[in-house]
Amino acid sequence: MIQTLAVESYRSLRQLVLPLSPLTVVTGANGAGKSSLYRALRLLADAALGGAVAALAREGGLASTLWAGPEGKVRKGRAVQGTVRTKPVALRLGFGGDEFGYALDLGMPVPAETMFGLDPEFKREALWAGPVLRPATLLADRTRNVVRARDASGAWGAPGRIGLTDSMLSELAEPEVLLLRDRMRSWRFYDQFRTDRDAPARQSRIGTRTPVLGHDGADLPAALRTIVEQGAAGELADAVTDAFPGSRVEVTSVEGRFGLRFHQHGLLRPLDAAELSDGTLRYLLWVAALLTQRPPELLVLNEPETSLHPDLLPSLASLITTAATRSQVVVVTHAARLVDALPKATVLTLAKTDSTTTLDGQGLLDQPSWHWPER
């Protein structure tokens, strides 16, 4: 389980160190930095897949994602005008967990004759045992393009070289590196399923066994049927009737193309996916995502309350609570009713002061222990 999440110089997250629990809810006012925190977690996962550079490019490049305020401390209550940077550009992301910790430090490349002069480079990476970085707990270490790792006896192996834009997680084959990479690759993110008229979830398609719902929800019928055939038909029925008393969902197959029928109390015929309201379809998508019989190490949900009627939030909270018994879950939300329906969750309320995201009520002595690898 991840105990600590650390972010530095990513959008409004100038210096943020957060404690995480088996079920963590991140909330706060609009513009407080909730979406930035969600995207920072996604960027960490992309690093394990070797896609951190491409992910930053989709956000407009490293320069567009960096903290845009002044380098020095900001005096509370006083406006401060930003100045030209005097220190090296650094975007840092990391986490500490029960077994492993990991941190990356991205910066701009040394000027050279190339058209790819804006590709961020890995300046430092570190993998260690336990929640806090210490020299004695380091398992793999990287400075620019030079990387080294400990062998089975604990001794450092010969240094190697990797590309400046490649993560050591995607390049090294040491057991601890492979284990962490596989765990991070299992992290699962869901962010506002489409439910418009042309949404993929409203279309029938060839059904295949689907233990993990796709991010676009196109395989919803197959995912629901997989839940049934993997022995969780009762959980699925309970989740539907909890939200819509007297209702049930049925998966149909016509020449191998799967579709949905929603039987609702009071209606003379079932509704297919194309006829469902946005809220009903979105709730069924969350049912398929959260009742997965292949739970990930980490499950991150971004504003799951979108398009749901407030009366459905307690049912959604029940699904999230069940999911948290199988995976570590982080929920990013601004719905107070959903927060209230998750009494066992650790609630982190973000606030913004002088354009900087902070954790409400957290003082310097309240921060979890954290150390960045130095350049």
From TrEMBL:
Entries under Pfam families matching the protein: AAA_21
Q: What's an example Gene Ontology biological process for this entry?
A: SOS response
InterPro entries this protein is in? ATPase_AAA_core, P-loop_NTPase, RecF-like
Could you tell me which residue ranges the ATPase AAA-type core domain spans?
23-340
Q: What superkingdom does the record give?
A: Bacteria
Q: Name one GO molecular function term.
A: ATP hydrolysis activity
Q: What Gene3D superfamilies does the record point to?
A: P-loop containing nucleotide triphosphate hydrolases
Give the keywords, sorted: DNA damage, SOS response
Tell me the SUPFAM superfamilies matching this sequence: P-loop containing nucleoside triphosphate hydrolases
Keyword DNA damage applies: yes
Q: Which PANTHER family match?
A: DNA REPLICATION AND REPAIR PROTEIN RECF (PTHR32182), SLR1056 PROTEIN (PTHR32182:SF25)
Name of this protein: Putative ATPase
